[in-house]
DNA sequence: TCTGGGGTCCTAGGACCC
DNA sequence: TCTGGGGTCCTAGGACCC
């Protein structure tokens, strides 16, 4: 059996933990630059605020209903996530952190009352962190997702923990769940399924495997088997990322090469830090710049470039130099840029890496980066390249809550 | 005035090999 | 007029997730 533990309205709940006056009032959390709604409390959902709502279009509703609005505070959410995951990991030797607010546990070989075990997790997480969670338990990961949804949807009956542990419950659950709400069925697949009359998850499980394979690839077939109760999606253990991205929209348009260069320097710096944190080197960098795709009066421009580096590196100095080279290829003057980003891929382990015969990363940078990371760990961006401003991401954050749990020292200026 | 960010996996088709 | 067969590897783009 597998359990899926999912935090309720996670970002909104994080804000609430440290501010009790927010109990029972509608809360929304906004994306970077305060652009759109990315999390809602139950009260906000009840007001009809949809996921992804464009914030400025809902200002009036926010005001009239006293909705408390927050800028995304990812330091806080990341730290709260750690705390929740640490507690959950004590409930099974095999766990998989699926997202910032979700965790799968394998209960393989454990003789427990599934409903009770879930309730115990809920109580402990709530008591120790303040975050409310729901637990779904079933013979496969996809069915555990379904069970979790039922636990969330019917709190009066399930008390937040539900197990699909019999064939009757499995069929009843799948006859209840709409096919587009199945984990792994997105818009495109839903369209195909509707077209042949499969409306419920149960209908999907009855389709011939040949049809599923042909129309939804092997991914769809695995999913179908999972819903039938045949485990086909394994627990993932790999902790290292295969790609690392730092991309941002600008709060104001960026018009010059110099400004774009500064932004890409900041994003590359941030991405390189993440790369070193998992002890990897990267072989490939992708860059892109983009104008405002919503502005109908101006022509839309998007250009990306892939840089295959002559050697694997995690040196901010080298990577920024490559990024600036790349930018020269994709930059077009006289445009109003709205967004840019850096995506790293093709990683190798920094400790067991075969150097190139001719070209290699400057070996001195390794120690230098180590020292810089150490200083910056407590004094964010205290040491940085001269091409980068102090203010890393320059985002609009008009409703930011305090760093309740991760209060870093103030930035100090260090001359190097 | 204002529209997010960061991931994973799979596949078709091209380039290449003998 | 006629032009094999069987592979591997890589990549861009699509679909999906939260």
How do the strands and helices of this protein lay out in sequence?
Elements: E1 2-7, H1 10-17, E2 27-30, E3 37-40, H2 42-46, H3 59-64, E4 68-71, H4 74-88, E5 95-99, E6 102-106, H5 114-129, E7 133-138, H6 141-153, H7 155-158, E8 161-163, H8 167-176, H9 187-195, H10 201-206, H11 209-228, E9 243-254, H12 257-277, E10 280-291, E11 302-313, H13 316-330, E12 337-349, H14 363-378
Parallel strand pairs: 2-4, 7-8
Antiparallel strand pairs: 1-6, 1-7, 2-3, 5-6, 9-12, 10-11, 10-12
The chain binds a DNA duplex (18 and 18 nucleotides) through helix 9, helix 11, strand 9 and strand 12.
How many beta-strand segments?
12
By secondary-structure content and strand pairing, the structural class works out as alpha+beta
Strand order of the largest sheet: 5-6-1-7-8
Distance between the termini: 56 Å
How would you state the average pLDDT, rounded?
A: 92
Portion in strands: 15-25%
Number of helices: 14
The biggest sheet amounts to: 5 strands, mixed
What does the overall shape look like?
globular
- Give the uncertain stretches in residue-range form: 410-416
Order of helices and strands: EHEEHHEHEEHEHHEHHHHEHEEHEH
Rg: 24 Å
**Helix proportion of residues, in percent?**
25-40%
What does this structure look like?
With 416 residues, this protein is α+β, with helices and mostly antiparallel strands. The chain has 14 helices and twelve strands. A hairpin with a 2-residue loop joins strand 5 (95-99) and strand 6. Helix 4 (74-88) crosses helix 5 and helix 12 runs antiparallel to helix 13. The longest helix has 21 residues, at 257-277. Residues 410-416 have low confidence and may be disordered. It binds a DNA duplex (18 and 18 nucleotides) through residues 10, 30-36, 38, 52, 54-57, 59, 72, 74, 98-102, 183-189, 217-219, 236, 241-249, 251, 292-294, 306, 339, 341, 343, 396.
């Amino acid at each position: 059996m597998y359990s899926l533990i999912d935090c309720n309205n996670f970002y909104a709940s994080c804000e609430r933990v440290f501010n009790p006056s927010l109990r029972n009032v509608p809360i929304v959390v906004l994306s970077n630059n305060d652009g759109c709604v990315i999390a809602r409390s139950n009260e906000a959902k009840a007001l009809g605020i949809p996921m992804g709502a464009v914030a400025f279009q809902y200002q009036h509703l926010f005001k009239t209903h006293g909705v408390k609005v927050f800028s995304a505070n990812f330091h806080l959410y990341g730290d709260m996530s750690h705390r929740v995951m640490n507690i959950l990991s004590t409930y099974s030797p095999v766990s998989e952190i699926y997202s910032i607010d979700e965790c799968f546990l394998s209960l393989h070989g454990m003789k427990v009352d599934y409903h009770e075990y879930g309730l115990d997790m809920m109580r402990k997480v709530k008591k120790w962190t303040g975050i409310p969670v729901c637990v779904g338990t079933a013979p496969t990961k996809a069915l555990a997702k379904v069970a979790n949804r039922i636990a969330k949807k019917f709190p009066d009956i399930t008390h937040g923990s539900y197990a699909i542990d019999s064939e009757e419950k499995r069929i009843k659950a799948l006859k209840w769940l709409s096919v587009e709400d199945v984990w792994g069925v997105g818009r495109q697949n839903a369209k195909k399924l509707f077209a042949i009359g499969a409306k419920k998850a149960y209908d999907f499980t009855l389709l011939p495997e040949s049809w599923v394979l042909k129309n939804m690839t092997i991914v769809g077939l695995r999913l179908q088997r999972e819903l039938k109760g045949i485990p086909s999606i394994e627990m993932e253990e790999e902790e290292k990322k295969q790609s690392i991205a730092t991309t941002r929209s600008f709060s104001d348009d960026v018009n010059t090469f110099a400004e774009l260069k500064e932004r890409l320097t900041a994003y590359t710096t941030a991405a390189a830090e993440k790369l070193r944190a998992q002890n990897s080197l990267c072989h490939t960098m992708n860059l892109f710049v983009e104008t405002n795709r919503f502005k109908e009066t101006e022509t839309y421009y998007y250009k990306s470039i892939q840089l295959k580096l002559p050697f694997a590196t995690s040196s901010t100095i080298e990577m920024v130099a490559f990024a600036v080279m790349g930018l020269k290829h994709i930059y077009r003057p006289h445009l109003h840029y709205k967004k840019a980003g850096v995506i790293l891929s093709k990683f190798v382990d920094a400790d067991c890496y075969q150097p190139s015969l001719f070209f290699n990363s400057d070996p001195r940078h390794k120690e230098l980066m180590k020292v810089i990371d150490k200083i910056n760990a407590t004094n964010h961006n205290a040491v940085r390249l001269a091409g980068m401003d102090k203010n890393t991401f320059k985002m609009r954050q008009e409703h930011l809550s305090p760093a309740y749990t991760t209060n870093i020292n103030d930035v100090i200026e260090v001359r190097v």
